[in-house]
Structures are given as C-alpha cells and as structure tokens.
Amino acid sequence: MKDRSGSLAWKPWDVKVEKFEFVKDMSFFDMMVPTADTYKHRYCLEQLLSVQKPVFFTGQTGVGKSVTIMNTMQILGNVKEDGSDGKIPLVGIAVNFSAQTSSGRVQQSIEEKLEKSRMAFSAPPGKRVAIFIDDVNMPAVEEYGAQPPIELLRLLIDKKGMYDRKEWEWKKVVGTTLIAAAAPPSGGRAVLTPRFSTHFNMFAMPQAT
Predict the structure, then answer these.
(1) What pTM does this model have?
(2) Helix %, strand %, coil % for the chain, to 5?
(3) Mean pLDDT value across the chain
(4) pLDDT of residue 10
(5) Whose CA is closest to 131, among 184, 174, 188?
(6) Where are the beta strands (DSSP E) in 61-140?
(7) Which range has the top average pLDDT, 48-52, 79-83, 117-121?
C-alpha cells in the first residue's frame, strides 16, 4: 500500500482491520470480530475468487474457517450489480458434508442454484457463483477406497462440468468457483486424495494464541 508520501511500502495487516460494530439484533453465531488474521484470509479469498481459482481452508476445529468463508461470500454477495465498485456480485452455495453425504445429493444442491440451458449450468447473468463445501473430508470411504462426493467435485474442477443424471448428457458448469474447508484427518475425517487437493490454493488457519 502507499504511505503518506505516496510511495509504495509494506504495512502490517493490522492497519486494514475494520472497526467492530456491535449489532444487537444479530445472532451471536453470525457475529465476526475482525482481526488481522481474518482480514488477510478474507483478502486472499476475495482475490482468488476474482480470478476463479479454487480455495481450500484447513485448520483445527474452531479457528474460524467456515465463518471467514461465509462472511466473505456475504460481503461479495452485497456488491453493486452495476460494477461501480469494481467487483462482480457473488451467489453463494453452501453444502455441509457428512459421512452420509451422497454424490447425487451434492450435484442436486449445486444444480438447484445454477441457471440451466440445453448444454450448460451457469451462474446467473452478471454474477459469479461460489460453491462452498464444508467438512469436505467427511464422506465415508467406500469399498474401493473412493469417496463419491469428492470424485464428483474433482470431475467438476478437472473437466468444468458434470453429467446430467437423467439424460446422461455432459453439461458444462461455467462461472463457478469451488471453496472447501476441513479440519485435519482424524476420527471420521478421511485423508483426501492428492488428485483432488492438488487443484486448490491451500491456507492453514492457525489456532488463536
């Protein structure tokens, strides 16, 4: 950023943190107190979404992965549609994975929010879509070592599309970006295949000290 003399200079993230404003009617669970960490992760997420690059946030439970992502999607969803602020409005699709999550249900959740045409699923006109998958490593591992919901997402990133399950036709998915979040593997959380995770820009969120 520029200093007072107009020269470019490195500055700490703290100088960009917004002042917290308490809203008494807001749910406690929806409140987010800005910090240097939340600001820098939000900034990086915004930049990557602007160029449609997949993003993965990891870190222990409670470090703020989901709330940071949801807060960012909410902010980008409220930008002006005329583009006067230099940003494109974002439509968020949030899907929570569990051990029982099926690939069919995931595909249905995504398709419901997209515009449908004969050959493609796309973001609404003048907007982009962010598909947020929380607890992405939770689906059960099947007999042959795969996780069907993960394989669907990998197909979406690899080939930019999915098969229509009724007509068995290939349909492109355009104007969308995938965001994933997960705690490290343990208990019911499986190890994600490198064929899937290699597509993401990875961020590890630290525990608060």
Answers:
(1) 0.86
(2) 30, 20, 50
(3) 87
(4) 82
(5) 174
(6) 90-96, 115-116, 120-122, 128-134
(7) 48-52
Which DSSP helix (H) or strand (E) runs through 177?
strand 176-182
Q: How far apart are CA 131 and CA 65, in angstroms?
A: 15
CATH number, position 37: 3.40.50.300
Q: How far apart (Å, rounded) are the C-alpha atoms in residues 8 and 23?
A: 36
Residue 1 in domain: no
C-beta of residue 130 within 8 angstroms of C-beta of residue 93: yes
Q: Which domain holds residue 104?
A: 13-204
Residue 170 lies in a domain: yes
- What are 6's two structure tokens? 């107009």
Q: How many domains does the chain have?
A: 1
3-state secondary structure of 163: strand
